[in-house]
Amino acid sequence: MKTIRVMTIFGTRPEAIKMAPLVKELEGRAGVESLCCVTAQHREMLDSVLHIFQLTPQYDLNIMEPRQTLSTITSKCLLGVEQVLQEAKPDLVLVHGDTSTTFSGALAAFYQRVMVGHVEAGLRTYDKYSPFPEEMNRTLVGDIADLHFCPTRANRENLAREGIADGVFITGNTVIDAMTTTVVKDYHFSTRLLNELDYDRKKVILVTCHRRENYGAPMEHIMTALRRLAESHGEVELVYPVHLSPVVREAAEKYLAGHPRIHLIDPLDVEEMHNLMARCYLVMTDSGGLQEEAPAMGKPVLVLRRETERPEAIAAGTVQLAGTEEETVFRLGARLLEEPQAYERMAHAVNPYGDGRACRRIADAIEWKFGLRGEPPEMFGT
């Protein structure tokens, strides 16, 4: 039987969460030799995901350095992946989403004339500086990739408008696959505070805020609004796992520290984050991944950004764009705390991002592309 070598490349925690179940799926395919390369663009947060999913990469570039820049990340990834590809000689490289690792991995594969598959393809804001640098990373990978695995029909339509029609598959989002194994009833947190919160009588708001385009005044406005929500609503417990970025940590300490119901904690591993999300009342975030994960659990999401490349959940009603202006963030947060009907409308909206079978569809598409199966994969949502 013909065997193909498929190398999965990722470097950050969000990528790892979404690619780990795909690696596991590929490992179970008889016609696939699955290889894994991590750049460790984010070291500690990446390692926690590898541990949870019991993944041991064959290649680890370990590029992370203090106060790294986009240029250092991109150049070290490009050179490191080049060496790995020359040694491993895969038939297909899989990259995910929109990180600097994603762009560098795809570009290195292109330089080696290796086929590229793009997982979570076709998301767009059409503003190259928002999210920055992710929007441009994702768009450039779209031009390089040979296979495009789109979470939704809208993502496929974005690619079609750009003249990309071949090798496009609608699969759903692999993060929904990941959550089928990470969310556990009666989960016990390793972070003591999370076990002590009263999730029934308090309204626990899960917050993340870390994106580069929010550095400076936008982050100040967001955090000021968050503090006002805690001060004006006694039922609120605000939990903020603070990103390791020194810029983010300095801002969180300046604007949020010292309030008895605002809890600044260290970053959580994927199991802790998913199980906290399952118990919380509301999510306020500038993260892309949480916009997909929270709706799967019936949790309303306020997006702390000016725009989003994930409009499907906004159309479905489970996500609302709050922007970065203090008054708007405060007003929308207060509305979901004070108006049960507004909350229920968002909590019961249909999640548009997947059914837990995205990895199966991607693996089927790869096998079909390389002649290992006779029929193309089913499309999500059809």
TrEMBL record:
It is an enzyme of class 5 (isomerase). This is UDP-N-acetylglucosamine 2-epimerase (non-hydrolyzing). Its EC number is 5.1.3.14. It comes from the Bacteria. It comes from Intestinimonas butyriciproducens. PANTHER family: UDP-N-ACETYLGLUCOSAMINE 2-EPIMERASE. SUPFAM superfamilies: UDP-Glycosyltransferase/glycogen phosphorylase (SSF53756). Keywords: Isomerase. The lineage of its organism: Bacteria, Bacillati, Bacillota, Clostridia, Eubacteriales. GO terms for molecular function: UDP-N-acetylglucosamine 2-epimerase activity. Residues 24-367 form the UDP-N-acetylglucosamine 2-epimerase domain. Pfam families: Epimerase_2. NCBIfam families: wecB (TIGR00236). Belongs to the UDP-N-acetylglucosamine 2-epimerase family.
